[in-house]
Amino acid sequence: MSTSxxxxxxxxxxxxVPAARxxxxxxxxxxxxxxxxxxxxxxxxxxxxxxxxxxxxxxxRYHALDADGMLALVLTALIVFLIANVWPVVTLGLxxxxxxxxxxxxxxxxxxxxxxxxxxxxxxxxxxxxxNKMLMLGWVLLFARDGRRAPGFAAIMRTLFHLQPWxxxxxxxxxxxxxxxxxxxxxxxxxxxGIWAYGVLTLLITVFSGIDLRRLxxxxxxxx
Amino acid sequence: xxxxxxxxxLGIIGCHVCxxxxxxxxxxxxxCPRCGAALHRRKRDSIRRTWALLVAAFILYIPANxxxxxxxxxxxxxxxxxxxxxxxxxxxxxSPSLAVIVFTASIVVPMTKxxxxxxxxxTTQRRSGWAxxxxxxxxxxxxxxxxxxxxxxxxxALLTALVRFGFFSQVGPLPGVxxxxxxxxxxxxxxxxxxxxxMWDRSDDD
Lengths: 224, 206
Known about the structure:
The structure holds 2 protein chains of 2 kinds.
Chain A: H1 10-13, E1 29-31, E2 38-40, E3 49-51, E4 58-61, H2 67-86, E5 90-94, E6 97-101, H3 103-112, H4 116-144, H5 153-163, H6 169-184, E7 188-191, H7 193-209, H8 215-219
Helix pairs in contact in A: 2-4, 2-7, 3-4, 4-5, 6-7
Chain B: H1 7-10, E1 12-14, E2 21-23, E3 30-31, E4 38-39, H2 46-66, E5 70-74, E6 77-81, H3 83-94, H4 96-125, H5 132-145, H6 151-162, E7 164-165, E8 169-173, H7 175-193, H8 197-201
Helix pairs in contact in B: 2-4, 2-7, 3-4, 4-5, 4-7
């Protein structure tokens, strides 16, 4: 069992032996993260999910998408993300005056108006984290298509894991809808291309949220 | 019911990042041989960290509700809104259904998080075997809904960027929104630092 090429310091892990491979004959071991119960995994059919017998948490689900399909989704999301960020989300009209906002206009305005903390949180959760997630995932998938591990695979996968809860595009879309309704009482409101792009992006994110990236580890196992 | 084995009893440990199952290392700081993430039998100092973050979040939630989050100036007329007055205004002038959504995201979700995480912490500390499956489901729900509370923060930000009509109408953020944003972030950290496996560690009867 060789592990040294996966970018970890071997001195720390010499006493750690992967146990899953020892029982490889009858499906890998799955440990429930929510209660520590050990299960034996098996191949799932379309629509099937595997839940923990003790606490009911989701352990695994069937995946319809392979690396090619996921890469296509990521590229689509990147294009839509670009549109969502370049075009304004909404335009307000008051008499002859017009005012529109893009994501970055919103972030900069919060910075200028004395709430830099909110500006930083918005920039991170709505721009930098989602963008980095898509770029890193795209990079990893580019190699995973041929069952290879991209340069920096382990570090990227760890980063993706930690970024997971900190992207909030869906919440921003709902926020835009609430803002439109609030503003409608006083102004002429006109939705711009940005809002539609954000709507599509939300759908893509929903598709993505069902994908367990861990399987990329198994799909790219060098000696599999 | 047949007793499913737990990883701790079998002396194995699962990597929380890549899912690889390893023999549990003897020391505390081992790294996963596959992805290099630190391996933990349980999240470190889970109960104490979660309490600290939850209490801090609750303290910040008070100014978040008492202080106004947004100022509207139109024709020299100043109107400061708190979270609750924003919900009321939306109910009266705009759309009651959206008012319910904002109320849920800004009031119901944070309060639920305080109550649920508080209950989970107390019952876990008492090593209670009460309603374990339901408590496990509550924890998963809290983890899932957490970040939707950011809704009001983004509404204030968008309105600030949009309503820029000088003397006629201007919207700006007020300190309450910063406290509220911090509350949401701290409750997210709190639910992440709670280790639900601790609930099950006491139980030999399930």
